[in-house]
UniProtKB/TrEMBL annotation:
UniProt protein name: TraX protein
Keyword Ribosomal protein: no
Protein origin, superkingdom: Bacteria
InterPro entries cross-referenced by the UniProt entry: TraX
Lineage: Bacteria, Bacillati, Bacillota, Clostridia, Lachnospirales
Source organism of this protein record: [Clostridium] fimetarium
Length: 294
């Protein structure tokens, strides 16, 4: 399969997933199918950034799209008069991961600049965090636009754990064996952590602890330590592993995207670049409005 074919399959799965997300009363298995979509887009993205002739333009395109998507996420619910927020912005995840991958490639070509590059990335995220704190204090619900503009890793869709998935796929992309071992291990570790609710508490929801709730967050972490932080109390709360992995946390099903990745034939296909950039926000707005007015 070419990257275009994989993208089209990922797009179809994404639509199915978002129908399950936005339209009331849809069966949960639609969300299961949708778990394959993001990893397939991630896989195509790492090849896209590898082969692109101009990484700066590639990243700028993702950055602009992420900002426009955050504006839509903010405005559409207000226009519809709904309190239901939109949090979908895969462009932000791809942009942040793309910057980190570009930094990794730069270090590989310039080993002497490794320390400086790491400091720049850390400084970027530290500065983004500071700006995010100010945004949370003064901008209320419009904070999502500011956090997207500064590219803070804790607030991208899926959180740092999805950025990590993209980086792992980048290192594994050249070998089917590496994909099986690297991406497979990542998914297995993900399910072990997610069943205990460790990832949502510590990684994906890190933004809760670092915004206006810093003090309350540390108090809560102290209260739930050591068992709550590891999510042991969550297992008891859910009462069954079945509910934990099939009802509450089914993102682990992204492991089933791996066989499709293994079918990649190294070819680009027809491209259809702008189609994907346009289709993503348009279909989200349409499905959201349908769901609100039903």
């Amino acid at each position: 399969m070419s990257t275009t074919a994989i993208k089209l399959l990922a797009l179809a799965l994404m639509v199915i997933d978002h129908v399950g997300e936005f339209i009331p009363g849809m069966p949960i298995w639609l969300r299961y199918m949708g778990r394959l979509s993001a990893p397939l887009f991630f896989f195509c993205m790492v090849w896209g950034i590898y082969y692109t002739h101009d990484k700066k333009i590639y990243l700028l395109r993702l950055y602009i799209c992420s900002i426009l998507m955050s504006v839509l996420d903010y405005l559409v619910p207000k226009i519809c008069g709904s309190h239901e927020m939109i949090s979908n912005n895969i462009f932000s995840t791809l942009f942040v991961a793309g910057v980190i991958i570009s930094a990794i490639e730069y270090v590989h070509k310039n080993p002497s600049k490794k320390r400086k590059t790491v400091l720049v990335i850390l400084g970027w995220q530290a500065g983004a965090l500071g700006i995010s704190l100010l945004g949370d204090r003064f901008l209320n619900s419009a904070e999502m636009i500011l956090t997207t503009m500064v590219g803070i890793i804790t607030t991208v869709e899926g959180g740092p754990i999805m950025v990590l998935a993209i980086i792992i796929l980048y290192y594994c992309k050249n070998s089917r064996r590496k994909i099986i071992l690297g991406y497979g291990t990542y998914c297995l570790m993900y399910i072990c952590l997610i069943v205990t609710d460790f990832v949502p508490r510590v990684f994906s929801r890190l933004d809760f602890y670092v915004n206006n709730h810093i003090f309350d967050g540390f108090i809560e972490m102290a209260r739930i330590m050591p068992f709550g932080l590891l999510g042991i109390d969550t297992i008891f709360y859910t009462r069954s592993w079945y509910k934990a992995i099939f009802i509450n946390h089914y993102q682990w099903m992204m492991i089933f995207a791996m066989p499709i990745m293994l079918l990649y034939n190294g070819k680009r296909g027809k491209g259809l670049k702008w189609f994907f950039y346009v289709f993503y926000p348009v279909h989200i707005v349409i499905l959201y409005c349908i769901g609100i007015f039903m």
